[in-house]
Amino acid sequence: MAIRVVLIDENIFKSLLLASALENDGINVADTSNSFADVEKFMKKHKPDALIFSLDTHAIQAIIASEKARHINSDLGLVFLTNVPDIRLLGLRTKELPRGAQVIVRESVTQLHDLATAIKRSIQDLDVIETANKSMDSSSYTESTFALALQSLTAVQIETLRLVAMGNSNAEIARVRLVTEKAVEHTITRMLQALKIAANPRHNARILLSREYFRFVEVDNQSPKLVS
């Protein structure tokens, strides 16, 4: 019997395209929605084997919605789609994902076999939280020094990068991080070095960092919140 899934993505056009592709690949897409608030309704109506969530615009809400769905069906498979090569850019850490959840980069969705495999694994491997196989492999991003270098950044550096991109001053970041402004300056300097962004008097380093950040992260008018 075909696996039954529900797609939750704020971009309903992307959901419909993906639903059509999955149907052609033998996955039964019971419904699509652009609202996380519909999750409980769809769980009771369709009793899906797995949910597929967009993890970019409202990452925290997606996690909360997935946990609510798991309260209804503890064996529910969960797959999160993202545009970013490292979910720490969204304020998330792997250990904060629901058990067995699979994360797959949208670029690899063109290889539907990978997505279908991730759906099946999310159902079968509920005792393992894993960032899904080659879908998150850096080989997909060989054209970007930034994406490759993310692997070497610490949690503090990723968090600082996010705060810089959200327009926070060094003083504001220092207050959030409970450190000195000098410590923030050192963190930014180390990030520039790790990301191989050369100092240029014609360009503000914060602008260069923000530009790289927003190449991967889609956000709306609400600034993402830190996950403690």
Describe the structure.
- The protein is of the alpha/beta class and 228 residues long.
- The protein folds into two domains: 4-137, Rossmann fold (3-Layer(aba) Sandwich), CATH 3.40.50; 145-216, Winged helix-like DNA-binding domain superfamily/Winged helix DNA-binding domain (Arc Repressor Mutant, subunit A), CATH 1.10.10.
- The protein is built from nine helices and six strands.
- The chain has helices spanning 12-24, 39-46, 59-72, 112-124, 145-149, 155-165, 170-177, 181-194, 205-216, and strands at 4-8, 28-33, 50-54, 77-82, 102-105, 130-131.
- Strands 2-1-3-4-5-6 form a six-stranded parallel β-sheet, sandwiched between helices.
- Strand 3, helix 3 and strand 4 (77-82) form a beta-alpha-beta unit.
- The model is unreliable at 129-143 and 219-228 (pLDDT under 50).
Short recap of the structure:
With 228 residues, the chain is of the alpha/beta class. Helices cover 43% and strands 12% of the residues. Strand 5, helix 4 (112-124) and strand 6 (130-131) form a beta-alpha-beta unit.
Overall structural domain count: 2
Q: pLDDT below 50 for ≥5 consecutive residues: which ranges?
A: 129-143, 219-228
CATH arch. level architecture of the largest domain? 3-Layer(aba) Sandwich
- Return Rg in Å: 19 Å
Q: What percent of residues are in strands?
A: 5-15%
- CATH homology group of the largest domain: Response regulator
* CA-CA gap between termini: 41 Å
Mean pLDDT: 77
